[in-house]
Amino acid sequence: MTVFQVPASKASINQNRFQFNLPGNRKKNLSVPLLKFAAPVVVKKLTGITKLEAVEIIIEHYHPGLFAEFEDQEQVLAWYDQWTEESGITVGESVDSTDS
Q1: So what's the pLDDT on residue 100?
Q2: The pLDDT of residue 24
Q3: What's the mean pLDDT when you consider all of the chain?
Q4: Residues whose CB falls within 8 Å of the CB of residue 9, separated by 6 or more in sequence, listed in order
């Protein structure tokens, strides 16, 4: 019997990550995986929620405590819009409607 070898994740490769900086945070070039490379446990939680909740789930999974450093919703929505754009999610398509 042949045993299937699950391929290694490509989530850590720079081109598969969304890099960002947060004003006031001393760490530069923070990153999270693009949607296609996000952990399934994260993607599963993104169904039927608001953009604000989605960003909190994503950020807290990869950078615990960092979501509290966003100062307003404008920052959160700008982050979400850029992350979804770089993840290849088109306008009108929600995170949970992608088949990544």
Answers
A1: 44
A2: 86
A3: 90
A4: 37
